[in-house]
Each structure stands twice: as structure tokens, then as C-alpha cells.
Automatic annotation (TrEMBL), chain A:
PROSITE patterns: ABC_TM1 (PS50928). Belongs to the binding-protein-dependent transport system permease family. Keywords: Cell membrane, Membrane, Transmembrane, Transmembrane helix, Transport. It comes from the Bacteria. Residues 96-299 form the ABC transmembrane type-1 domain. This is ABC transporter permease. The keyword Mitochondrion does not apply. The chain crosses the membrane at residues 12-30, 102-121, 133-156, 176-195, 234-256, 276-302. It is a multi-pass membrane protein.
Amino acid sequence: MGRYVARRLLQMIPVFLGSTLLVFLMMYALPGDPVRALAGEQAVDQAQIAQVKKDLGLDLPIWQQYWNYLSGLFQGDFGTQIATQRPVADVIADAFPITVRLALFAFAFTVIVGISMGVFAGLKADTLRDRGLLVLTLLLISVPSFVLGFLAQYFFAHELGWVEPNVSAVAASQELILPAVVLGSLSLAYVARLTRTSVAENLRSDYMRTAVAKGLPKRRIIGVHLMRNSMIPVVTFLGTDIGTLMGGAVVTEGIFNVQGVGYNVFQALKSREGSTVVGIVTLIVVVYLVSSLIVDLLYAVLDPRIRYA
Amino acid sequence: MPEALETPVKDATQPGSVPAAESKPEKARSLWSDAWHDLRRNPLFVISAILIVFLLTMAAFPGLFTSADPRHADLANHYLQKPKWGNFFAPDWFGYDVQGRSIYARVIYGARASIAVGVIVTVLVTIVGTVTGMLAGYFGGWIDTLLSRITDIFFGVPFILGAMVVLTSFEERHVYVVILALAFLGWTQIARVARGSVITIKQADYVMAAKALGASTTRILLRHILPNAMAPVIVVATIALGGYISAEATLSFLGIGLAEPTVSWGVDISSGQEQLRNAAFVLIIPSIMVSITVLAFIMLGDAVRNALDPKLR
């Protein structure tokens, strides 16, 4: 087990470096210029621009910029925003907890509601309630999440007045419930469908017949025998889900005006603040890598036949 | 070639009871013709196929559906005029947007951009993903390690966020820029599926036989591996197509995908959000179009998967 974790952590290093390099290149090697963007529409002296670039190290070759960025990163220095002179680490420290909370709420909603719905439908496959769930999940998958967000905002905030349309800067937990439900709804549909298929399939298996024949109580048959075996494909999906939720938060945060990571990335992209964008995307990549490792380790808990040497 | 993958399940369940003459045509059916046989009887498939043909016609010949010009703005008469639900196919059927343009005409003409993005991204992604996955799966060793790590790297970058980063670099965002940005980050899922599928298939007897007969690597890859590995790839690609249409709309909504004067559902949803409170239909009608299109492709993908993978039934 220990050796397996160590090997996986080692394998993460090239992926981590590659992903950050990719984002770095997308940000800096493509056209668009933060120093020009700083000046806005005004005419600026070319020499002045060159001087600012030299001060910021933006005139160096791209690989050297990347090296400087990486070595800073390992000392906890995410760089400084060019326009506001604010350290990127501060921006992240403010925004990250909000998005993490949003993503965790969405994740909890996905797991609890999605799995319950899937089990509910899978236990009675091909009945009316199963068909109903299939239609519901198809609808959730096909309506883009920003449309869902607008509709939720329109009904719950403008029509019914249950919540404020915009989340305040503090982003109190109860304010994040509606955005989290919107954010999690797509994953919810996938989790429900995966659970349903898996439960319906495992119901027909031999060990289920044995468990029933032994006269075990229904709660134990479903709770232990059926669930444990049916969760493996669902857990695989959930492993990449936290990363996806954090990335997808850009859209939800935009609609509900949540001042999290997505909001900051969006602002930074507009002013071409490379260090902010790269820093935040890097962190999301780390979250994704770590959560998929945790999931792989969870396999062994669910299925003891899987052993990690 | 496809005989090797036929599903003998149906025949095996009733040994001897079926007269030989009757069981023969059953046996000869390949995976694909078997799937086609199932699909034609699946209402989900029929509905989605009709919807898709309809949408493709709309994208190819928008003039068939309306004579109104989607860019013609008539502020004086039509500013945010409510839909007239009884006036079928008339320019005011779905009302007018804030600039007095016919929403019906814009919805019809918007199909082209959205569907073009979806279809072309899917084609590009399928080509890149299949080639990468096939090479990694077939050759194994360091080629597999290298290609798989590259796939992991691209997979790790969040999709919408990554596409945003790419797209903000371009001043002029034509349809092809959006297509390239989505394809650039989207191919990894197909590559993973193709790799897994090829690894299973390369151990099949017919591949061994082809090798023993001295077939070249190219021939084995193109004639034996590729056709048999495509089933899961096609399923994933069909379902992903809906996702790309949705992604285009999302990016346009964020103001970094397609932009005016391109007519697209995403652009219209984006401009409709300002009128959400006094004229929700401006946002809702193009949203419904996006949803129907995505739904059609997902239903198609579902139906194809059920037909190709009898285990899921």
C-alpha cells in the first residue's frame, strides 16, 4: 500500500509539471499582452512598455519565465498581480475557501441525492419510477448549467423571493446552497444513472440470490452486499468529479456573483493577469490529482480483491 | 472481420431446439447489423434520429424555415415584443429581442454555428483521440507511457477553464477558433476509451492469426484493430457531441466564445440575460433549442450504446 502510494505520487510529478506548463504556455505563448492591457486604450510609449516588461521578467524566453515561475511556486510564491500589485497568494487565500466550500456542498448534494435516486430506481428497474428518473437525468444533462442557474435564480430569487439573487462577498454557507445545487446537478444526473445501472445489474448476481436465500434482513442485503459492490463505478466517476466541480464553478460563480476562484480567474483573464490564472488552474489540477489518488485507494476498501503491492 | 465479434448469446440459450435453417441467418449477423436491428425498434433512437435530421436540415438550409433575416433589427416596432404563439413560422412567433430582431429567425439561423461546432469538434477529437489511443494501446511500452502521460496532462486541465484561457488570447473569435480550442482540450476522453478497447482487442485470435499470416502492422491496425475498437469510441463521441454544443453555448454566454455578429444560440442566451426579469423568453427560447439538441445527441448515444453493448440490457 505504502509503495503504491509512493509510486502514484511520483507519477503525479510529470503530470503536474506538464499541466502547469500547458496552462503557462496557453497563457503566455499565445497573443495578448498584460502590460498593454494595463494601459487600456491609451497610447503608450514602446520604450515604457519594454521597461515594464523587463522589470517583470516578461522579456525573457518563455522557458526561462516558466522556470522562474516554478521555482517561485515551490517557495510558496505565486507571483504578484501586475495591475493591483497584490500577491496572487493573497487572492487565492481569499477566493479558494469559498470555491472549496461551494464544490464540497455540490459534491455532497451529488453523492447523497444522486446515489439515493439511483438506488431507488435501480431496485425497481424498468418500472414507472425508473423511467421517470431516466427522463429527469436526461433533462439535467441536456440543459446547460448556466441556463439552469438562470432559471433557478429567476424562480427562487426574483419570483419567489426565497433567496437573494447575488451571493454576498462573505459567501455564508446558506447562501451557497442554491449555487451548489445548480453546480452539482450535472454530476447528480451521471451519478444517479451509474448507480441505477450498477444496482440493477448486481441485483441479478449470484451473491445476491445467496444472501436472500440465507434469509438475511433486507436492510443488510441492500446496505452491505448490494451497495458495496455497486459503488465501484460510481466512485470512479466521483474521483474526477471534485476537480470538475471546481473548474465548472466558473460558470455558477458568474451567475450568482460568488467571489470565488472562478470569479477571480474570469477577472484575471480579462486583464490577462497570467500569474493569477496559472496559479489558480494549477491548484485545481492539484485538487484533481489528489482526489483521483484518494479514489484509487478507496477501491481497495470497496473491493478487497484489489490489492496494491 | 466482424464475424469474430458476433454475439452468440441468443443462440446458445436454446441449444438444439432451433432448426438449423432458422438459426443460420441469426448467426451471420455482425455486431453492427445486430445493433442496427435493435436500433430500428428502439423508440428512443427513432425520436432522436428524427430530431437530429431535422436539426441538421435547419443548420444546412435555414432559408427553408423562415424568410426573415436574423440580423434585421427593427427597433421602432418590435422592441421586446412578446411571442405570438399562434403565428406558426411567422417572424413574430417567438417575439423580438431587445434590438427588435426576430427571435424565431435567430433561433433557426443559430443552429448552424452551434451544430457546426458540435460536429466538427467531435470529428477532430475522434480522429486525434483514436490515433493516440490506438498507438498507445497497440504498441505498449514506452510509447504507451509517453502517450498516456500526455493524455493525463491534458485531462488534468479543467475543460471550460482551459478553453477560456485559450480563447481570451484571440481578438477575433470565429467559429473555427472556438472549434480548435475545444478540440485541443477535448480529445483525452476518446484517447482513453480507444486505448482500453485496443488493449482488449489486440489479444484476440483474429489479430494473432493476422500476425501469423505476416500481415503488416499498418494492415493489422487499420483492417483488424480499428474497425473492432470503434464501438465504444462512437458511443462516447456521440454523447460528447451534445457536451460540445453545450460548451460552445457556455463559452459564448461567458462572453469569450462566439460573438456578434455571428448568430448562435449561445450568443443569444448571453444577450438575453440582461432582459431576464422583464422578458425571460429572450433567454429561454434559445436555451430550449440548445437543450433539445444536446438531448437528441445524448439519447442517440444512449441508444447506440445499448445496441452495441448487450451486457447493459
